[in-house]
Amino acid sequence: MTAPDAGKAPATPARPGMRERLLRALHGRAELQAWSLLGPGAFWLLVFFALPLVLMFAYSLMPRGIYGGVEVGFTFEHYRRFIDPLYLDILTRTFLYALECTLICLALGYPVAYVIARSGRWKSLLLFLVVLPFWTSFLVRTFAMIFLLRDTGLLNNWFLRLGLIREPLQMLYTPFAVMAGLVYGFLPFMILPIYASLEKLDLSLLEAAEVLGARPAARFRRVTFPLSVPGVVAGSLLVFIPALGSFLTSDLLGGAKEILIGNLVQNQFSSARNWPFGSAASFIVMALVLVAVLLYLRVRDAAPEGAR
Amino acid sequence: MKPTSARDPVVEFRAVSKSFGDVTAVNAISFEIQRGEFFSLLGPSGCGKTTTLRLLAGFEEPDADGGEVKLLGEVVNTKRPYERQISMVFQNYALFPHLSVERNVSFGLEQRKTPKGEIADRVRQAMEMVRLKPETFARRMPAQLSGGQRQRVALARALVLQPTILLLDEPLGAIDLKLRKEMQLELKTLNKKLGITFVYVTHDQEEALTMSDRIAVMDNARIAQLGTPAEIYENPRTQFVAKFIGESNFFGGSVGRRGVDTWDVAGAAAPGERFRIPTEGGPCAQRAVSAGQAVKIAVRPEWLDLCRPGEGPPDENSLPGTVRTVIYLGETMHVIVTMSDGSDVTVAVRNEGQLIKPLPWKPGDAVAVCWRPEDCQILEDA
Amino acid sequence: MRLPKWLIAFVAVVYFLLHAPVMVLVAFSFNASRFSVDWTGFTFTWYLRLLERADILRGVRASLIVGVISTLISTLFGTLVALAIARHKFRGRTLFEGLLYVPIVTPEIVVGISLLLLFALVNVPLGLTTITIAHVAFNISFVVIVVLARLAGMDRTLEEAAMILGADEITTFWRVTVPQLWPGILSGALLAFTMSFDDYVITSFVSGSGSSTLPIVVYGMVRKNIEPSINAISTIILLLTSVLIYLSDRLSRESPIVE
Question: What is the ipTM of this complex?
Fold first, then answer.
């Protein structure tokens, strides 16, 4: 019977090497280990994300300097300007655009999510087709809209050809174009969360409802929809929040009249040269977004267990 | 616990404690494991057996003033797992999915910088030892193996290092019954053949009884009893052990007069009921009792008999009850009898063929449950 | 349960609307006619013309440099952060995890101008460096999320098995953890690269006049209506990013690499 090999230890050098010293120093010190990993990323985010935001907030409270920058001082004037109807208009318009976009996305997106959830074999493919535009360049997709909608664009060309109209229809640089662009851009954000919550729906609940006498419309109204509400809320906020801060869509598809707050901000840093005012506007956008996010978290955590 | 001959303990736990926040997982436990033993840690989930194993492996460390863990005579409280001379087979096998079978098995050898030629030989030997043909299995990936095959690879990976001590954490849990019995036999054979100390964690008491040289039955962060399978099964010391290992019935009462070689006990179930327990001298009378004390005994179903009320043998204890139900188990019949205080007692009667010689008991019958006074275990906890 | 026909038709229309603009764009990148939207013939001319445009070539080069470097940095940092969150308890962990989501919800315009303010204050000249810095800043969070998801599904006992077989923490990390994590890391990297390559808004604020990444060049072309080269370059961008995203998606589901 061979005796167990007691002598073969993992090679332990006589004096602990660098590696061993490092491991021994970190051993048991959970916080130190954690922070040595978090360090680089946390540092980067602190310096290049958090700090700039603080700077922006600080600037928003300083008076404007000669060249558009800031002077040392303290003032609320930039925020006060938002009481001016011109700027209130912009805020309201942004809010309404975001809201309308959300509603349209809901109307279009819910049926899509519903069908995908019921599509069996086709699920992966259909999902992929929804996700794909989601990740491709926003700029390119916005240009695609221009290509379709402008006076010399494809749609006008076809309408003229088919004799439906006699002159090109003004579609670009209208609220319609901006809304179309927003919906086109954000629709996938609505579809995916609703799909996720519909997918979890236990079909036997619907069968139970059917046995209890509910017809399709009633089953939807009383079982399916209520249980999908968390997904609806998530999707709505996932559309509403970025829509508030959107800039590119209104920039390329909107034209001078359809200024959203994103465009206002951008203006202050290019032609209008008013950095502190731009900072204030930017901060207001940020604040609106954060409020919406907190709302989302509140609603999400309050959702009843059965509905998940 | 029977005194062991002075051989060398390869594992010693001295008042080891481990807590996680408010929860005490292991509470000042002490035991020794001798070289070459097949030692099992047995208990229900949450009793602390897995934590004990992990303390041994080094994945957990004892609390600051939580005793000493000693391996081969050396205190290893702060030694990392890779610094300990231990091998382990995990419950879910933990085979590296990105490595082939042979690379899995050779992992530990590579860590020790064993020369390449030697690695190849030892891997082959280890695979043959667990009955996995090297030619067929060496290049396969874990994903291509069945549960039983993966288990063998995990075993080979641990054994190839020729460890002094091998830890096994419920390794047979995921395997179906028939294969499990085979594996139990194989593990036991390996233990004896290789002389490696096996420390085995399980919640299956049958498994522990089958394979172990000694068993530590754990309950609630402590060791309830430590002994050989026979000691555990035939002389359980507490209610917990008696209930956990096999089946037990319990009778309680308060000790009365002492007779020639028995104590008279006034049964707690109902006034007037009495039974006798043996005095010292005898495997079941480990605990001395005195008059007036509360006492509880455990009686295994197979030590009980049923007879008509008043017709029990005079030298046996006899308590009245009513048959509740009869359960057909094939080899035996279990008759569940409700006693005077409403509690149930299980009586195991050999099945001599219900179609030829049926049991005379039906639900509702009044019966007497009888047993010889020496066929009991006096428990430490009343 | 069968779906009503009108519902399927409705959804088909929505799908069509989702994809038609881009399909049209791509189709017309092959249109021989330069100015009208009438189809006059199939051609690769506009693609070849792209190669003659110095600004596009410079843009591609800039995007690739920024993309690769920012991806390397953000993937490294993001992976480390994910490991810390998943494997270690530390004070403020929940708060930190929550804060990681802030870069994702913050509007690009806010990120862009705030960084511009920082660079202006410290007098850093705007160029590829500042763009790279910005891209790393917003990509870290994405990488963390992807890698965290992968970590959540990882079998911890594999690391314990490695340790009991003699591998110390560092060896275990390289020989066991990383191979398991690798598809997730790669998936996060591809995502980071795509986000960097496609970014317009943030880049526009921190790039200054000399350095233009591809999206900036394309934006200029859109403003100046340079047809149909825009279609061509757009198609190429779409193709590239679609492939990358597809790979990233596949990788996030895959089992670990095989040694």
Answer: 0.85
